Amino acid sequence: MALNLTAPVRDFLARHHVMTLATQGGAGPWAAALFYATDGDALVFLSAPGSRHGRDIALQPRCAATIQGQEQDWRAIQGVQIEGVAAPLDGDDRDRARRRYAERFPFVRPEAGPDAIVRALARVRWYRLRIDRLFFIDNARGLGQRQQFDAS
Fold it and tell me: Is 25 part of a structural domain of the chain?
């Protein structure tokens, strides 16, 4: 399933590093800020499986995410709103996510990170957020301008 994202959307995702992931679980809705890396039309991230959002994903994989800058001028606001499905990764998919993430965040490479990071990485789970729908907000094109991209 391809989203066929435009260059401005791909550039936006490449310039930013943190998404806010919104999940729903037994304790209600939850949001968590997480580093991400792109992997084709998906986002990959890591988290402890026992974290609240990790437990929520295990119960209900449908989730949402946002990525935005911290602009003070409304004309400079850009951001994405995402609907999708998050899932833990194993095997080759997990290894690919690790590589993509390490390309973006060198501090997670075993040879680069301090022992504390290496130990922490041994306890995390790798996830992929498969994007079903993405909205790109770009106020530089006018207030409230938004493009929709759906997986086909």
Answer: yes
Judging by beta carbons within 10 Å of its beta carbon (0-12, 13-18, 19+), is residue 130 exposed, middle or buried?
Answer: middle
Cα→Cα distances 100→14, 74, 76, 109, Å: 12, 33, 29, 11
* Helical (H) or strand (E) element with 71: none
Residue 2, domain member (yes or no):
no
DSSP 30: E
Count: domains in the chain: 1
Helix (H, G, I), strand (E, B) or coil at 41: coil
Within a domain: 1:
no
Cα distance between residue 143 and residue 33, in whole Å = 26
Range of the domain at 31: 7-150
Q: What CATH number is associated with residue 57?
A: 2.30.110.10
Question: Would you call 24 helix, strand, or coil by DSSP?
Answer: strand
pLDDT digits (tens, 9 = 90+) for 50-95: 999 999 999 999 999 999 988 888 888 899 999 999 999 999 999 9
Looking at the predicted structure, is the pLDDT value of residue 112 above 70? no
In Å, what is the CA distance from 60 to each residue of 51, 88, 150?
Answer: 14, 12, 21
